[in-house]
Amino acid sequence: MPIVSLKGIKENPTLLADSLTRGTDEGKPVKVSANKTAALCSAEDPFYGIIESISEDNAVCVVKNTGIITVGYTGAAPTLNYDELIGDGSGGVKAPAVAGTGKLYFVLNVDTTNTEVTFDLG
Q1: What are the start-end ranges of the H helices in the chain?
Q2: What are the residue boundaries of the structural domains of the chain, listed by start?
Q3: What's the CA gap between 22 and 43, in Å, rounded?
Q4: 81-98 burial, b if ≥16 CB within 10 A, otherwise e?
Q5: Least enclosed by CB within 10 Å: which of 17, 50, 72, 101?
Q6: Mean pLDDT by groups of 10 residues along the chain of 122 residues
Q7: Measured on CA atoms in the order 48, 106, 101, 97, is the torsion positive or negative?
Q8: CA 68, CA 120: separation in Å to the nearest integer?
Q9: Contact 121/106 with Cβ under 8 angstroms?
Q10: Is residue 61 within 8 Å of residue 55, measured between CB atoms?
Q11: Which of 85, 77, 75, 76 is nearest to 106 (CA)?
């Protein structure tokens, strides 16, 4: 099993990958599913960050958890400035079904043609 250390990490930590697949899951929102482990979000899951890369053996991944990111969204288009987002269960984000169960993010751009949203992860 790979050794994962969180000492000195300020952004983009490397975590164990829980059922993630290289070449398929990059760019999708993830949650922490166990100690030092990232897994894809199910519908209505708050997300920790977005998968940046996955090792060739699918054992570890790098999670982008700060900075600006663009991902797909489903449902109603997010609102510019601050809007609440949550995992949609299909590799993107959406507004939560129940207000207050997601997290507020600063939304910079909403592309309704391509159903993509650009926001600051914090």
Answers
A1: none
A2: 14-64, 68-120
A3: 21
A4: eebbbbbbeebbbbbbee
A5: 101
A6: 59 87 97 96 96 95 94 97 97 96 97 98 90
A7: negative
A8: 4
A9: no
A10: yes
A11: 85
**DSSP structural state of residue 76:** S
How open is the CA angle 109-31-27, to the nearest 5 degrees?
Answer: 45
Q: Which amino acid is at 102?
A: G
Residue 57 is encoded by which pair of tokens?
Answer: 């053996």
Say whether pTM exceeds 0.90.
no
- The CA angle 17-95-93, to the nearest 5 degrees, is 30
How far apart, in whole angstroms, are the C-alpha atoms of residue 71 and residue 118? 7
Q: Which tokens go with 60?
A: 């570890």
Six-digit token string for 13: 């930590």
Distance CA 15, CA 61 (A): 5
